[in-house]
Give the backbone structure.
Amino acid sequence: PAMASGPGDGHSTLKRCLGVLREARNDSEQFAALLLVTKAVRAGELDAKTRRQIFDAIGFTFPNRLLTSRQPPAGCPPDTFQALGFTLLACFCTDPELASHSQILNKIPTFNDVLVSPCNPESTSMVDDVYQCLSAVLATTRGPRELVAKGTVSALCQAYMSGSYGSDRALTLLVGLLAIAEAKCWQRNAPHLLAVLSKLSNDFLKAEDMTKFELCEVLPHFIPLSPPLMQDSQGCECLHRLYKGLANILGSKLSQTQRDPALKLAACLVQACGSEWIPAGSAGSKFLALLVNLACVEVRLTLEEPDPLEVEGKKEVVTACYVLIEMGIQECLREEKPLLEEMQKIQLMRIMEEAFGAVIFYLRQVKQEELQDPFIFASVRILGAWMAEETSSLKQEICELLPFLVHYAKKLFQEGSPAVSLPQPKLVSTEGSALPQDALRFLLPGFCHLTAEDKPRDILISAGAPALLWEYFLHQWEVLTSVPKSLTPLTSTEMSLQTACGIFLNLVVTTPDLIRQDKTFSSLMDMLLKSLPLLLPQKDHLVLAANMATLGLMMARILAGSAALQGTQSAQEFFRAAILFLSQAHTAQADPGSGAVALAVSPAYSGAWPEVGELWFLGMQALAACLPLFPWLPQAVLQTHWLENLSELLTHVTPASVDFELVAAFQGVLVELARASRPCRDVILSHQGTEWANLYGMAALEQCLSEQ
């Protein structure tokens, strides 16, 4: 029977066909009814309910048989049955529930086969149906994982590379898959994806029309954060083509709609490869300066407007500019093989300062209800990067913004503690990722500089920064200690803990009264007493241990009257650990040439000495100051045998190898020990103390030892 023309009639015909399908006695009856059904499906005139009725009438068995039938009906093209099967599956897939059904998911390899097979002109509708099925699967929760696992990425890459029918849809699907499962896609299909990137970057370089700007939108999806593209010669070639293509674009006069995608692509490359994709030499340095310049102009133009971000997509562009500016900051500070010349650096710093003026202007107007916006996070993060490096500029403006920054960091931290250590999302998806983020991590280095100065320090204290820092410190310590030991090289968690120690040290040195009065610091002291003994034995954490030991010693000096420090077990264990840290820093080392024995930094400390050295000297001073305050402490020093070891060390090495500062540090501790404790004095004397004190010019120690 022919399909009736009126929609009402069509519906009744369809109903009749469905009835036939249900009651068909043999394949040919079923097939005839099916042809009519698929005709209606292809005409696209069915609503969801009717489609579901078709599925209920047919189920998966019949399409499954169609897909495996090898014998077409007489006079029909060879893949007639398969085409019908795919049409039905495409129809079923419009129902999300069916799209994630195992019967659809197990067809993924069959779909892939269609994509990689040569397509003859008669079977284009079959290819369309397959793409429809794959798009529907991609939109389900389980779908992307299944597609990656069952080889769809390489099939899509091949379909795109072949340029056959529907290859543009292959690219769209690839973009969708990469947006959801980038890392997995690259793990399994790096060569195929590189081939696509290679073709795209080639097209990008050669295009002279609007295609160039369209490719700017597509390319970021194909630039992986890992594996690094620089590792591979094909990847390097792609990057070079992208650099040249971008240099062409950004060097021309552009409209807003053309410039924005180019800036986003550049930012994506920076996120993935830093500045390594920009070649050294004058062309590269001009390009880099131009990039940062354009980014700064964009930030100013946007953020100085009254309602800066009303325009659709503006946040993404400005976020991309932030990435470029952050690279600008790093390049201006880079001393080894710098890409920029001195003059360029000076100019860029000035231009960046203006951009940061605009960022501050924008942040001062943020409303309470906007605080969860990821764009504000991006703005605070980039300002943190500037404050970390460039503290002298915009000082007044930054001071005025500090209460907001503390409030913002506190709000995010308290609302999002569980997710505090989440990594940064990739640029492409900045819109709408409302994850709680760790803003404080990016502000700490700037706060560390600022707490060394009176005015900003007072503002930070009155804004409640110490209590927030303590909560954050405790949280990050829990994060660090909850990770299995083998997994913790220097993480952002550990960096944050070190920087927080630096801030606390600044406060200890400059505001001892605050340390005495604010309960925060007695809690911090208790925590340090318990934590240092756990941390010190672990080899990988020397810098953090140095920070915590020195901070604890400096605070103990101020909080000497507190109950926790009166010879309690935790206090004794802390001081034992701190003494261990101080006592193991130096060793005797024979000079292979002369045979002379010199004092040197111990091998375990030497790699970290640039970061640890200053803390060691500070720790020695603090220990010396603690000795007269804690009657039980000299005895604890005796138990570690440090005095014997130090005497032996100083007797063995050439005095000329021990510099003045080191002599002063040792003498400071030795004098206090000799004064505070007769047993300590006796140990020093019985180990030729008088002789080596004289030899090293330790006059105060000589004096002390000679007194009865």
